[in-house]
Amino acid sequence: MKMKTLYSLSIILALSFSVVSFSKYESTDTKEHKSNTSIFYNSDNDAVKESVSNEFFKKYTDLKKYKSEVMSLYKNRTLGTIWFDEDEINEFGSVLYEKAKKTNDLVIPYQKEIDQLFDSSSENNISKTDADMLLSSLYVLYAKKSNSDKKKLSYDAMLKDFLNYSTIEEATAKVEDDGNLYDQYYKLQGVLKQYKKLEKSSKWKPIVAETPYKDLRPDAVSPTIAQVRTRLYLLGDLKQDSKSDFYDRELMDGVMKYKVRNGFKPNYILAEEHIKEMNIPVSDKVKTLMLNMERIRAISPELVNNDEYVLVNVPSYELIYVKNGKIELTSSVFVGSPLTKTTIFNGQIDRIVFSPYWTVPQSIVQNELRSKIAADPNYLAEKNMEMVNGQVRQKPGPDNSLGLVKFMFPNSDDIYMHDTPSKTLFDFEKRTFSHGCINVKMAKELAVAMLKDYPEWTQAKIDKAMEGKVESSFKLSKKVPIYITYFTSLVNENGQIGFFQDVYEKDAESAPQTALTVN
């Protein structure tokens, strides 16, 4: 799916470090650094362990009082680090960081330094050893705060319970339930890790299609098909690469998976635009992932705290409605054209209008209708329009450009959401047709869902209000936040990455290296 994408989230972060930064080892070479790190964790030489730990707690003095608990975590470990897989923070380190951030009243010493570990755009000089011990210190603080009922257990014993894969699955399941958009950051970070590895490999090669290009369909035979098969295998849409140049059932399933997660029309046709998308360099995908991670970090904390809101993501052309912290409804949308872009902003839905009039904007009257009205005196009547106080408006009805319901949220750009009679437009892959407003495919269903808390609005009353005869407006007693966002990559509820069209070319305008402050 596309923006459902937004709401199933787990926690993976990546960062590269130098191996050891203690001043007493500064003159040694790389091999000696690695050796000393190993000695620190695995050696029976207590003097070495004590020396290294003293250096750390001398540097991070506010953590010194937790020294015995922190060092107990390393006592019987056979691996060099707790929170790293090679040079990248592992899933458990990321889970710890996210859980600690969400623990009320937890004061975290050296918060800035720890945040840097999870900021892919941040340059820091924290060694891998220091980073691991900082996270171990964070673990002790988190355990003290959240596991008071287990205080009789040693921190080492508690760590064994924490470092259990079910912990990751439980955290992921919770995130999928509550739709926490912030956690999408960590999903993207996990994908970033995979794409960086793919970038370093020699497996990614451009697909060289036959010319002139002809759409590829099931049962076709072509050298291009074999290349597509390899690409989909590398991307995880196929479990194996048979190297076959025949468009078989296996490839059909892979193509469908690829298309759905990337927001393309779900069919088996491989058009030239799909080959071009597959040929986007991995380095560009890496930049896109980093940019969207930063966009997520800039999101207002209010979104995380709200248990009801509407979220529209322009690049994936999708809307979700969250109610009581759960996803209640998803719908396809179409948005403003590049010349009349839908504004990216937050608002509050305060009214639902049934069988609305459409007051035609003066810009449309001037640029599109004036000549038609002058050429045909009956034009307004034929279009169910009328002139009122010098303004052109379209009367309620099934052919009204706003459809049978609209959702109002005051804003300076006069943007709102509404139904549309042009349902066939939702079949297009690139859906930028409006003058800026958001056209919702399941507008009626959205209205029904939003009015569940209003007993007077029965299904029969809603149906009558949407007959298209008389405009009626209902003011919500509780305003519903709406967030219009611009994410060109997101991870769906199945853990699959989707890359969407940069319809307003905002990616090109942005700099992925710019660090944003964590809220």
UniProtKB/TrEMBL annotation:
<dbReference type="Pfam" id="PF03734">
    <property type="entry name" value="YkuD"/>
</dbReference>
<protein>
    <recommendedName>
        <fullName>L,D-TPase catalytic domain-containing protein</fullName>
    </recommendedName>
</protein>
<keyword id="KW-0573">Peptidoglycan synthesis</keyword>
<dbReference type="GO" id="GO:0008360">
    <property type="term" value="P:regulation of cell shape"/>
</dbReference>
<keyword id="KW-0732">Signal</keyword>
<dbReference type="GO" id="GO:0004180">
    <property type="term" value="F:carboxypeptidase activity"/>
</dbReference>
<keyword id="KW-0808">Transferase</keyword>
<feature type="signal peptide">
    <location>
        <begin position="1"/>
        <end position="23"/>
    </location>
</feature>
<feature type="active site" description="Nucleophile">
    <location>
        <position position="437"/>
    </location>
</feature>
<dbReference type="InterPro" id="IPR038063">
    <property type="entry name" value="Transpep_catalytic_dom"/>
</dbReference>
<dbReference type="GO" id="GO:0071555">
    <property type="term" value="P:cell wall organization"/>
</dbReference>
<comment type="similarity">
    <text>Belongs to the YkuD family.</text>
</comment>
<dbReference type="GO" id="GO:0016740">
    <property type="term" value="F:transferase activity"/>
</dbReference>
<dbReference type="InterPro" id="IPR052905">
    <property type="entry name" value="LD-transpeptidase_YkuD-like"/>
</dbReference>
<keyword id="KW-0961">Cell wall biogenesis/degradation</keyword>
<feature type="active site" description="Proton donor/acceptor">
    <location>
        <position position="418"/>
    </location>
</feature>
<feature type="domain" description="L,D-TPase catalytic">
    <location>
        <begin position="308"/>
        <end position="463"/>
    </location>
</feature>
<comment type="pathway">
    <text>Cell wall biogenesis; peptidoglycan biosynthesis.</text>
</comment>
<dbReference type="GO" id="GO:0009252">
    <property type="term" value="P:peptidoglycan biosynthetic process"/>
</dbReference>
<dbReference type="InterPro" id="IPR005490">
    <property type="entry name" value="LD_TPept_cat_dom"/>
</dbReference>
<keyword id="KW-0133">Cell shape</keyword>
